[in-house]
Amino acid sequence: MADELTIMEAIQWRLRLRAGLVEDWEAFTIWLEGDPGRAAIYDEVALAEIDADEALPMLQVPPAANDDHHEHARSLWRTPWIGALVATLIAALIGLMALPRLTAGDEFYTISTAKGEHRLVQLGAGNMIALNGGSRITLRKGDEHFASLEAGEALFSIRHNEQNPFELSIGDDRIRDVGTRFNVIKDPSSVRIAVGEGTILFNPDGEAVKLVAGQGLRRMRTAQPVVHSVDSSAVGAWRKGRLAYREAPLADVVADLSRALGKRVSADQRVANRSFTGVLQIERDPAALVNSLALLLDLQVRSVPDGWQLMPRGRAAD
Amino acid sequence: MSEGGLAQLFMTMRPALLRFLLARGVSHGDAEDILQDLFIKATTVAGPIAEPKAYLYRMADNLVLDRSRSAVRRKDRERAWVEARSGDRLDVDDAPSPERAMIARDRMADVLQTLQALPQRTALALRLYRVEGCSQQQIAEQMGISLSAVEKHLQRAYRSMRDCRVRLDAEMGNLQRLNDQGGNKVADGG
After folding, report:
1. Which end of chain B has the smaller Cβ count within 10 Å, N or C?
2. Res A106: pLDDT
């Protein structure tokens, strides 16, 4: 049974060992040998740290509390994201005084990921974007309320800001955020949105479709957007290597697989609209994963340079 | 230290590393496997290493943690498979049963909630430590507090994180027992 002292000691060891010298590891060994129960407690602490590492980038850090705001401004100035927060506060003040914006004049920059690569982008103090592989996003220097997803997939964790809401461009579509976590996929043929927490407005100045947690939207090229239900707990699950689908067209599934596997996975025209429901676990061997998907849909796999194509069965693979 | 040097060092440290792994709660057979992995890694490591002995210990510790994690992931995968087959996973059920609600619960959401509940300065210290990769000394300088205050913040954060994990594992264990018993009886938390 875990007693308080053992837990605190295990935590102290974990903290100390990060920069530990050989003497520390030897002392740690002796500590572990002192009681066979200690190793399990240390495991809990170390594995909890790994859990936290996964969640930390999505943590929304609230702005400095009013009472000790001055202390924060003085001592944290050197922290990059606090600097950004203060810059934003200054920008907001300038906005209040109705002066022209003095922040860097519309300097756009683009961040892209290779297929199979994941990247986290911190936007100001409270906003975080997790970029999936094969994706590209454009940001504006000094503006934490704007992003444009050019291609691929990203998970957004956005802190609500009444005065200056976050806006995302996806081609000609817009999303206005009302404090939330949501996922967006932009492929050449479609835009797909899924909301995990909070609320967003799709095209606030057009259709103004309101999406709440557990809802998704999909738009094929320029067709009308269609709202459907999603599993809110599975939103952004790609970060954990899990892709969940409910009656999704195969074209979407292979596009997601290409991003996740870093391979060129495609579907033949004749089967691109086949419907798939299920969960794919990415950490498996890519070839085996594509083969099992083909098996589930009764399709045939053809090898192509750097990937695979799913084809109808019974036709000679040429 | 050269590549060959690390492998050589591994050979002289092998008994100490085995002792460490056994103290770490690994079985004798698994410890031998881990040492084998470690040896291969030691022969292929590129670039100089500042504290090679501590490095080998840390690699051994990481390999133990990797094993624990893949055991957990295997359980998750089996769960995901069952959910996909039963069709529960993706349906938004109007009235989910408690078991389903538990299954669908996202582990990360729970961890995130735990982190969100931390005092602001504690969360900041943790973020600097884990995300920015600052040393405790650097955090002390950045936050304008003493080294021991940094330690207190981090200890507090780790305590919450550890308690969250233990709670989630207990729930998972209950769920497992629940499934094993055909959902008739909720097993004791233990």
Report:
1. C
2. 56
